[in-house]
Amino acid sequence: MAVIIIPARKGSTRLKNKLLLEVKGKPVIQWTAENCLKVKNAEKVIVATDSEDIARIFTGSPVEAVLTPSDLKSGSDRVAYVAKDLDHEKIINVQGDEPLLLPDDIEKVINGLDDAQITTLSYPIKDEEEYINPNVVKVVTDREGYALYFSRSPIPFYRDIDFSQMLEKFKNPVMKHIGVYGYRKDVLMDFAYRLKPSVYEQIERLEQLRLLENGYRIKVFTAQKDTLGIDTEEDFEKFCRIVS
Question: Model confidence over 82-104: pLDDT tens digits?
Fold first, then answer.
């Protein structure tokens, strides 16, 4: 069986304490965790946090909260810190600010680990502003759905045609990466404890490039529905409108 681990750092730069912001009396992190409880093929859901305030939210809840050191550098490090002491072979990393992921899409990530080392999600980009936005990570894959590269740059780059012509001529040529990951446990341990930050990872500030640069293959599944990562006040207001 799989375990879903949600890294939940209290500090955030663009939107202060975003995981503790309440919507309809419930903080964002609780929306995310309770959504993950709906995933049928996950045995448990754990919130990995450096904050006692976040941990207290789950007192008496079916969601387990584990306190992690505050000096861990990334969400993946937080997930690995908790996963290393578990017996589960499928480790799923769902970001704490992704409360609208479809449980069925998370199940795709879990099931994909039957045949793949690492799994993740993408969704077609239809808007050119999103395509050129460096905060929206793009991914291109091979014919079997394995990632060739992730980038903040517009990839693939349309040289001889414009954006709308590219969409018309090719089927889903531009894909947004959705930051949920499934790992085989041994791969996650390698990633967190053995592999050093790689060149392209440091340039793009995308840690999944560390895996590609070290020869790991990442299977990318197309999500049924786009999601909303809450990074800004605008994102939060949009989430409030969606669930109201």
Answer: 999 999 999 999 999 999 999 99
Nearest to 49 by CA among 30, 21, 25, 26: 30
Residue type, 243: V
Q: By the 8 A CB rule, do 186 and 87 touch?
A: no
Say what the pTM is: 0.93
